[in-house]
Structure formats: C-alpha cells, structure tokens
C-alpha cells in the first residue's frame, strides 16, 4: 500500500501533494513502482497536527478519487469521518482505512452498507494527545483486546468479517519500546485470524533507532516493512514503494515463495 498524503502538514511529505494533479501523478507513480493499493489521506494524524473539517477533507479527496476512478487502481481512503467514508465509497474507494477503528458515531453504518473493505487500527487516545506518556501493562494484550472488540463491533453492525483488516497502529499512542514490541510480536496480532496491515514507514521510532531525520529513513522503513511481512503482515503501508517491493521480492524468492497480490486480497474483500 503506497501512501498519498493530500495534506499540508504530514510529518514526512506534508505539502508535496496537496494539489490534486500532483497527488494523482504521485498515485500513478506509486502504482508503477509496484503498489497494489494507494492510500489517500487528507488529514494528518501527526501528533499535534491541525484538524481538517469534513468539507475540506472532501474538497481535497474528491478530484483525486474522480481522476483515479476509471483507472482500475484499488484506492483506500484514510479517514475517521463517516461523511468522508460515505463520499469515498460512492466515488469508488475499495477500502476505508480508519485509524480510529470506526469509533466515530455513524462510522460502522457508513461502511456496513457498502462492499468496501475496512482497516481497523489501534490508537490510544487521539492524535492530539496520544503521545502524552502512553503506558500499558501489556501492550500486545491490550492492542489485541481492543482490535478484537472493534472487529466484533464492526461485525455486529453488519460489516462482514471477510472485509476487515486489523492494524496494531505503530506510532499511535506508543513509545519506541512499545512499537518495537509490536513488531517483534506481530504474529500475536495475526493470531486474531484477520489480515494484518502494518505501517512503520519513516516514523520517529525508526529515527530513534537509526539516528536519522525523516528524509533519511528509507532503509530503516524497508527493514521494518520486510520484518512485518515476514511476521505475517498482509499489507504494508509505505511511502517508498519501489525499495520495499524489491526487498520483499528478494526475500520471497530466496525463501522459495511467490509474490502475493494484495489487489486480489482487496477484491476478495468485496
Ligand atoms: N499511519 C499513518 C496514517 N495512517 N493508517 C494505518 N492503517 N496504519 C498506519 O500505521 C498509519 C495510517 C501516519 O503516517 P502518515 O500518513 O505518513 O503521516 P500523517 O499522519 O502525518 O499524514
């Protein structure tokens, strides 16, 4: 899954693709590099980022969704707002990627009535406060329990299990130590029996490990994505598609496995 941030303030690429035509060009580039899904987000979730109104989010997303609609590119929309989810589904999005795991009022209903897939992510608190001293007795157990609860809520609201992916939320209300534990124990998240999405791309924990600023975290990001795939992730959400794809292709070839297409997974969800 390649990331297209249509925002002014995303931590790694804010402002670069805020014009619709640049965002569309970037989406095509990511597909050329080997992305099976493009994930388009119009509101940064960086700690302390400014809130974006529903109207603004729709204004940013709509021209991009329309431009990609007939291109047979599976599009994911990264949003927490039910109104934006409904618009995105109407405009042909295959997947709703919700860092808030459909907790907003009306979010389950917005997805339930459609054939779209949904990614339910764990986040402690909200983006404004999530990094204020996050603490867990057992981070894996708590993330698992939260995700199991959100899957149950989605299913009870009419979202078929086959349409759901889960994400432990690397960097969302977690210290670097928590994040490393999540990657180390990723199979425990997969043990819930649903496809796992994982996103560590360019995040600050990789900076803490490598000592590198955000623009120099490609190698660290590729290493994290590869470890996640090796530990069972079905979808890795990345900014640097080509190097990630190469790393996964080499690992699969060396271990005698074939590359799986996540677009097949998404089609299977519909
Ligand atoms: N991370 C970010 C945003 N959306 N969605 C899922 N499912 N998993 C993630 O780990 C995840 C996500 C944050 O990264 P980015 O979009 O690059 O930054 P920003 O939120 O500043 O736009």
Report a brief summary of the structure.
Helices cover 44% and strands 11% of the residues.
Topology:
Blueprint: E1 2-5, H1 20-33, E2 38-41, H2 54-68, E3 75-78, H3 82-90, E4 95-98, H4 107-112, E5 117-121, H5 139-156, E6 164-167, H6 176-184, H7 186-190, E7 197-198, H8 204-210, H9 218-230, E8 235-236, H10 241-254, H11 262-269
Parallel strand pairs: 1-2, 2-3, 3-4, 4-5, 5-6, 7-8
The structure holds 6-hydroxymethylpterin-diphosphate (HH2).
Explain how this protein is built:
The chain is of the alpha/beta class and 270 residues long. The chain has a single domain, classed as TIM Barrel (Alpha-Beta Barrel), CATH 3.20.20. The chain is built from eleven helices and eight strands. α1 links the parallel β1 (2-5) and β2 (38-41). α1 (20-33) packs across α2 (54-68) and α6 packs across α8. The radius of gyration is 17 Å and the shape is globular. It binds 6-hydroxymethylpterin-diphosphate. 6-hydroxymethylpterin-diphosphate (HH2) binds at residues 3, 5, 7, 10-12, 41, 44-46, 78, 97, 99, 119, 121, 167, 170, 197, 199, 237.
Query: How many helical elements?
Result: 11
The number of strands is 8
> How many domains, as an integer?
1
CATH topology: TIM Barrel
Measured distance between first and last alpha carbons: 17 Å
Strand content: 5-15%
Stretches where pLDDT is under 50 for at least 5 consecutive residues are none
CA radius of gyration is: 17 Å
Q: Quick check: average pLDDT?
A: 92
The string of secondary-structure elements, in order, is EHEHEHEHEHEHHEHHEHH
Biggest sheet: strands, sense, closure? 6 strands, parallel
Structural class: alpha/beta
Shape: globular
Q: How do the strands line up in the largest sheet?
A: 1-2-3-4-5-6
